[in-house]
Amino acid sequence: MTVEIKTIDFEPKRQTFGHVARRIGEGKPATRYQEAVLDVQATANFHYKPLWEPEFWQYDEGKTKVVMEDWYKPLDPRQFYYATYNISRANMNQSNERNFTFVEDKGLLEKLPQETKDVLINRLIPVRHLHWGANMNMSEICQRGYGTAVTSPCIFSAGDHLGMAQIIGRIGLELDGQTGDGLETAKTAWMNDASWQGIRKLIEDTLVLKDWFELFVAQTLGVNAIVFDYIYNGQDDAFGAASLPISMLTEFVSDWSKDEVKWSDNVIKVVAAESAGNKATVSEWAKKWIAAAQDALTPFAGADAAKAQADKVRDKAKKLGLEI
Amino acid sequence: MAVKKMGLKQKYAHLTRGLDWETSYQKMDDVFPYDQFEGIKITDWSKWEDPFRLTMDAYWKFQAEKERKLYAVIDAFAQNNGQLNVSDARYINVLKLFLTGVSPLEYQAHRGFAFTGRHMRGVGPRIAAQMQSLDELRHFQTQAHTISHYNKFFDGIAEFQHMHDRVWYLSVPKSFFDDARAAGPFEFMIAIGFAFEYVLTNLLFVPFMSGAAYNGDMSTVTFGFSAQSDESRHMTLGIEVIKFLLEQHPDNLPIVQKWVDKWFWRGFKVLGLVAMMMDYMLPKKVMSWKEAWEIYFTEAGGSLFTDLERYGLKVPKYADVATEMAEHISHQNWAVFYQYTHAAAFHTWTPDKEHLDWLSEKYPNTFDKYYRPRWEMWAKMDEEGKRFYNMALPQLCQTCQIPMAYTEPGDPTQIAFRCTEWNGEMYHFCSDGCKDIFDDEPEKYAQSWLPVHQIFQGNCGGPTVPDVLNWYRLNVGADNMDYVGSPDEQVWNSWKGKAPAEAAE
Lengths: 324, 505
Known about the structure:
The complex is a heterodimer. In chain A, 68% of the residues lie in helices and 0% in strands. By secondary structure, chain A is mainly α. The relative contact order of chain A is 0.12. By secondary structure, chain B is mostly helical. Helix content of chain B is 59%, strand content 3%. A two-stranded antiparallel sheet of chain B has the order 1-2. Chain B has a two-stranded antiparallel ribbon with strand order 3-4. In chain B, a hairpin with a 2-residue loop joins strand 1 (407-408) and strand 2 (411-415). The longest helix of chain B has 31 residues, at 218-248. The mean pLDDT of chain B is 95. At the A-B interface, helix 1, helix 2, helix 3, helix 5 and helix 6 of A face helix 1, helix 3, helix 5, helix 6 and helix 7 of B.
C-alpha cells in the first residue's frame, strides 16, 4: 500500500545553473556536490596582479608545472561539499569521543607504567606538530591551487589535520595528568631528538615548495602515505600494552586516512593520466618525495622498516599510473 | 587520584599555540615569505588574544548541526514550492543581485582566508583565519543551494558564475575583492576582516537577510539565521585583528589608518548596490538605506571608532561624504540601472505612487526635490511609449568601476568628476575618495579591467550591444529589461491566477 499526497506540479524552466548544465548535460538535475563545486572559482578578467606575487594572477594555472585541459576533471569521489564534510567529521568524531570516555573511565592510559607513557610521549605525541605542518600545506594548496574541485577538499583536509593534532594533544594531556608537561617534552623531542629530525626536516622542506601540485604529491605520497602511516600503524610493538587504547583514541585518524586517500589518490591518478608530460612530472615528484620520506623515516623507524614502508608506496604509485 | 583541571583557556592554548615551532631546516622567512613587505611590525605574536576558542571537534559538531537543520528547510522549501510565498516576483531580482554580485565574494573570501590562514606567522590568527575560510566556503555553497530552487523558475540567475567575471556592474564587487586578494595578508585582514566584516557587514548581510524575512523568502532567511553565528565569529576576528596590529607597534598606526580609509571607501561604493536594493527592489521594505546608514554606520560605527580612539585611530576619511551620499546613492544607482536595463541581468521598474510616497517620506531632504520628478517623468514617457534607454556606454571610475553618475558633495545637480595624470595617461574618478586610492597605488589601479574600455577594445564578444550581451550569456528578453512584460512576471501571474499586466512598449 502506498499513500500519495496530492501536490501541485510546477514545470521548471531549467534544472540547474548554466555552468553546471554545460558539464552534466541540459535538462538533468544536478547534485548538491555539482552545484557547490563545479566552475565555482573565477577564471577570467582579474583586475590586479597580487602585490605579493606579481608574476601570477591570484588564480593562475601557471602556479604548477602540470597542465590540465580542465581542472574539474580530478573530482572528489566522496563528493564533499561543506555540509557533507562537516557531517561526516562530526560523526567520525562522535565515535572517537565515546572512545575517549571509555579509555578515561577505565583509566586505560592513566594505569600504564611510566616507561610506556614515556614511549608514547616520545614516539606518538610529537606527531601533532607534523599534523600542524600538514595543515599548513593543505591550506597552502587551497589558496594556491586551481579549480574548486581540487582546492575545496584541501581546506577540509587542513581542518582534519588541525583536528587530528588536537586529538593527539588531548592524548598527551591524558598521559601527563592534564599538566601540559608531556606536551612540552614531546615538543622538545620534535625539535631535538635525533629520531624526529628527519621527519621535521621533511615537513619543513615541503613548507617552502612553490609548485602547489608538487606539494600535493609530497604531502600525500610522502608525508601521509609513508610517515603518518608508519607512526600510526607501525608502532604496535613499541607501544605494547598501550597499542589498544591508542588505536581506540586515534580511530578518527584511521577513518580519516582511508577517506582522504580515496580522494588524494584519485587526484594524482587523473592528473598523471592527462598527458605524457604530466605523467613524467608527477612521477619525478613522486620518486623524489617518496625517497625523501623514506630518508626522513629512517632515523625514526630504522632503515628496514622505512624501506618497507616506502616500497609499499612505490607499488601504490605504480598502480596510480606513475613510473617509479 | 584527583586530576587538577587546567582552565579552558590554558587547555586551548596547549591544543593550538603549542603546535607551532620555530623552523630550523628552512628559514622562517622562507616559510612565511609574505608577512613583512607591507611594513607591519609584529613584535610578539603570542600577545594575540584568541577571539573565540573553538577546537576542531567542537567546530564540526556545531556546524554539522546547523547544516542538518538548514538543508532540511531547503528541502522542505523546494518540496512545497516555497517560491509561491514570496511577497512579489519583483523580489526575485534581489536574489539575482545577491547571487551574481555577493555569493562569488564569499568564495573569494574563502580563498583569501586560506591565504592568511597559511601565511600569517602567528598560530592564533592563522587558526581563526582557517576557520573563517571554511565558513566562507560554506556561505558560498549554501547560497548556491538556497537560490538553486529559484533558478529553476526564474530568469537571470542561471549564469551567475559566468556573469560575475564579465558583466559591467559586477566588476564593481569583483574588483573590490580582487583588490583585497591582491593585497598583502595584513591588508587583506583589515580590508575583509575589519572593514567589510566588522564595520560594514550590518549594511550588507543584514539587509539582504532582513529583506528575505520581510518578503517571505524562507529559504534565504533560514540561511541567514544559520550563518549568524559564523558572522559573529568573523566580526570578533575583525576587531581583534585591528586591535592587535595597533597594540603591536606605533609604526603600524599610519598604515592601518590608510587601509581603514581606503577600505571604508571601497566598501561604501560597493554597498551602493545594497542601498538601491533596499530602497527600490524590495516589495516589502525593511527600512530605508538612509535609516540603515544612520543606525549601522553613524551610530554603531561611531561608537566603534570612539572605542578605537585610544589607539589613535580616527574615523575613516570621507565618512562625512558617505553620510551625505546616503541621501542620494540609492536614487542615483537605480536610475543608472533603469537607463541600462537592456544590459542588466535583473529587471527594473519605475516606483509606483505608493512607493514614491514612501521614498518622499524617508528622504524628506532630497527625494521630492531631486528624484521624484525624474521618476514621474520617466513613468510618463513610458506611458507614452517612449521608455527611456541610455544607449551610450558610460564612463567608469577607474577605482570603484561604477559609472560616473554620482554628484558633487554639496551639489546634487552636478556630476562629480576627478582625474589624475599618471604615466602619460589620464585616469578618471567619481570622487575624491576613489582618486586618493588611485594616487596612493597607481601601479595597481591602472591595471583595472574596466568593462567599458574592454568593450571598446574588442575584448567582450564584439562591437555591438547584442554581441556584448551574448558574450555575457545574458538571455535577451528574459534576463534583462523591465519587470512588467517579463517572463518572470508572466509565470508569477499564472501561479497567482492574475491577468498579465499591460506590457510596456
